[in-house]
Design brief:
The structure is a single chain. The chain is mainly α. The protein has one domain (25-116). It is 67% helix and 0% strand. The longest helix is centred in the C-terminal third of the chain and has 25 residues, at 92-116. The chain is globular, with a radius of gyration of 15 Å. The N and C termini lie far apart (35 Å).
């Protein structure tokens, strides 16, 4: 089994979005979903993904985004990948299905980028 460990030094890498400024709300909603999709691509356990989801939410909260804005876009990601009532239905089996959909989506997106070159 492949195991990946990612360490973060909070003194070096604070929870911030300092690389982003003066962008539209659409860009930020896309960024929230992109962060969660990236998390799903590299995390095979639902518990690891759920921890990262909380981390992403905290980063956006710490950067001034409302909890309602964040929840709306987290919910949208789950809806996009056919998970309804994710708070009660997200277990390893449903996560595996969502993760497969995200991997397939990512592969299709990468293929489109290659064709456009």
């Amino acid at each position: 089994q492949l195991r990946t460990i990612i360490n973060h030094d909070n003194d070096i890498e604070p929870r911030g979005l300092s690389f982003i400024s003066d962008h539209s709300l659409l860009m930020y909603s896309t960024l929230i979903q992109a962060c969660l999709m990236c998390a799903a691509l590299i995390r095979s356990k639902v518990s690891d993904f759920d921890n990262k989801r909380r981390d992403v939410q905290i980063v956006f909260l710490n950067n001034g985004y409302s909890i309602n804005f964040i929840k709306e876009h987290v919910e949208q990601l789950f809806q996009n990948f056919y998970i309804s009532n994710w708070k009660s239905n997200l277990n390893q089996n449903t996560y595996d299905k969502m993760r497969e959909e995200i991997i397939e989506y990512d592969q299709q997106h990468q293929e489109m980028k290659i064709k456009q070159r």
